[in-house]
Amino acid sequence: MKRASPTSTGKLASDRWRHDLLADFLGSIRLRSAVFFPMELDAPWGFSLSARGAAFHIIARGTCWLEVAGVAKSIQLSEGDHVILPRGDAHVIRDAPTTQVADIVNCDDSNALKGFRAGDNGPLTRLICGCLRFANDATDPLLAILPPLLHFKLQTAHPAAWLETTVVRILEELESDRPGAEAVVTRLAELMFVQAVRAFFEQNADRVPSGWLAAVRDKHIGRALALMYAEPERPWTISSLADRVALSRSVLAAKFSQLVGEPPLRYLTRLRLNSAALRLRSTEDGLKTIAAAAGYESVAAFAKAFKRHMEMTPGVYRKNRGPTRARHTCFSDDRQAVSAFRTKPLREPLS
Question: What SS3 class is residue 76?
Answer without folding.
Answer: strand
